[in-house]
Design goal:
47% of the residues lie in helices and 13% in strands. With 221 residues, the chain is α+β, with helices and mostly antiparallel strands. Among the domains are: 2-48, Arc Repressor Mutant, subunit A; 67-147, Alpha-Beta Plaits (2-Layer Sandwich). A hairpin with an 8-residue loop joins strand 2 (94-99) and strand 3. Helix 1 crosses helix 3. It is elongated, with a radius of gyration of 38 Å. The termini are far apart. The mean pLDDT is 79.
């Protein structure tokens, strides 16, 4: 969770997500920090698993990959899921696979990228030859890679999450301050009249004694 990282560590994480190849020196300049600090935080992020490895995201059309496909599967065998996941891990066309729920009862999604539709057909034929009799239903969603507007823009996702987290922290600080101020006793606008106690009032005898003492202090008396 992001709340386990300090504000500085979150900023370093965001900087590395935006550009994994940025040097520690350059990132230190951008974040107004020191190079040793950035190096230490980078190592910590890898050790804790917040970062796994640095990848360059290619322009799919320029490398000849024209088709991205989301393949949805529906089945009810847990063991089948494990076998499918093992199969896709060894398949170079697949870049993402996960189990889930929803969408007419589909239980798994496979994301793959291909040069053309014929290549995907070969991919699907291979899949059906291995698991077709055990999968209840298969549905495919096709995307022309030239029409992808945002692809693996993890930095914008991370930045949004961090901004919301920072905003929550500010709100919590304000709430704590507000609560502290509310705990301070308030001085009433109109103080009640407090009468003098009887012992505070001087008696007539004490007034006479005071006058006698004053006369004794005068010279020539």
């Amino acid at each position: 969770m992001l709340d386990r990282l300090s504000r500085k560590e979150q900023e370093v994480l965001l900087g590395l997500v935006k550009n994994g190849r940025v040097s520690d020196r350059e990132l230190a300049k951008r974040l107004n920090s020191s190079q040793p600090t950035i190096t230490r935080v980078r190592s910590k992020l890898f050790q804790l698993g917040y970062l796994t490895k640095t990848l360059g995201v290619p322009d799919l059309t320029k490398v000849g990959l024209a088709l991205e496909v989301f393949t949805f599967l529906r089945h009810s065998d847990i063991n089948l899921s494990k076998r499918v996941i093992k199969w896709v891990q060894d398949h170079d066309a697949v870049y993402f696979a996960a189990e889930g729920e929803g969408l007419r009862g589909y239980t798994m999604m496979i994301n793959s990228i291909h040069q053309n539709f014929s290549e995907y057909e070969a991919f699907l034929t291979e899949f059906r030859s291995k698991f077709g009799t055990e999968v209840h239903e298969i549905m495919s969603f096709f995307i022309d890679t030239q029409r992808i507007h945002v692809y693996h823009n993890w930095s914008s996702v991370m930045e949004g999450v961090m901004k919301r987290e920072w905003s929550k922290k500010k709100m919590r600080k304000r709430e704590r301050l507000k609560h502290a101020l509310e705990m301070i006793p308030k001085i009433p606008a109109n103080l009640p009249f407090i009468p003098k106690r009887a012992e505070d009032e001087e008696s007539p005898d004490s007034e006479v004694d005071s006058a006698s003492n004053e006369r004794e202090k005068k010279p020539g008396s």
